[in-house]
Design a protein that fits this description.
The structure holds 2 protein chains of 2 kinds.
Chain A: E1 9-13, E2 18-23, E3 32-38, E4 45-50, E5 55-56, E6 61-64, E7 70-75, E8 84-91, E9 104-109
Parallel strand pairs in A: 1-9
Antiparallel strand pairs in A: 2-7, 3-4, 3-8, 5-6, 6-7, 8-9
Chain B: E1 5-7, E2 10-13, E3 19-24, E4 31-37, E5 43-50, E6 53-57, E7 65-68, E8 75-79, E9 88-95, E10 103-104, E11 108-112
Parallel strand pairs in B: 2-11
Antiparallel strand pairs in B: 1-3, 3-8, 4-5, 4-9, 5-6, 7-8, 9-10, 9-11
Classes of the chains: A mainly beta, B mainly beta.
């Protein structure tokens, strides 16, 4: 698995866009970038994933650089309920285990 | 929206006792996983299960642990003789063959006294 590095913590004002960066400079060609989040001690929640194209769904957008060495998760209008730990994971999507790092603790403030 | 269901939400047991944690994966999912998270630490992979057999396991998943899919809907994790250090949140996850997205349950908090 490619190692990913994320900032330990970030703050964001409610209603503003939250941009969470992730570095994965050793990612291999067949590894996807997955984003999950964990609110308190709940189970990790899937957000979005992508290979090389930018992706958008109802929760977030994923921007992957052209060289695939880094990506950014964007929550367009952060709410207090988006306060969570966000994990960026690089993995080959073939039933493999997910390797969680420390993630980024996002605090959305009023 | 279908979800992974785990029971019980909290299990308290005495050291040395056997516990069984239960999971009902999302219907038509074929890959199943157990992860655990000790309080304040990272989520750690334990085991993956596909086609009625273990496909991968971590160093944590020693002889004290076993998994089973006793029927078409349940997926269980058994710890034969619990230790204090087994206290953690245990998460079950499942994945459909072509979707490549693991969906997690809410977890079972295991407290070993």
């Amino acid at each position: 698995d490619a190692k990913t590095t994320q900032p330990t913590s970030m703050d964001c004002a409610e209603g503003r866009a939250a941009n969470l960066p992730c570095n994965h400079s050793t990612i291999s060609g067949n590894e996807y970038v997955y984003w999950y989040r964990q609110i308190h001690s709940q189970g990790p929640q899937y957000i979005i994933h992508g290979l090389k194209n930018n992706e958008t769904n109802e929760m977030a957008s994923l921007i992957i650089t052209e060289d695939r060495k880094s990506s950014t998760l964007i929550l367009p209008h952060a709410t207090l309920r988006d306060t969570a730990v966000y994990y960026c994971i690089a993995e080959i999507p073939a039933g493999n285990m997910l390797t969680f790092g420390g993630g980024t603790r996002l605090m959305v403030k009023p | 929206e279908p979800e992974v269901t785990q029971t019980p939400s909290h299990q308290v047991t005495q050291m040395g006792q056997e516990v069984i944690l239960r999971c009902v994966p999302i219907s038509n999912h074929l890959y199943f996983y157990w992860y655990r998270q000790i309080l304040g630490q990272k989520v750690e992979f334990l085991v993956s299960f596909y086609n009625n057999e273990i496909s991968e396991k971590s160093e944590i998943f020693d002889d004290q642990f076993s998994v089973e899919r006793p029927d078409g809907s349940n997926f269980t994790l058994k710890i034969r003789s619990t230790k204090l250090e087994d206290s953690a949140m245990y998460f079950c996850a499942s994945m459909a063959l072509a979707k490549n997205i693991q969906y997690f349950g809410a977890g079972t908090r295991l407290s070993v006294l």
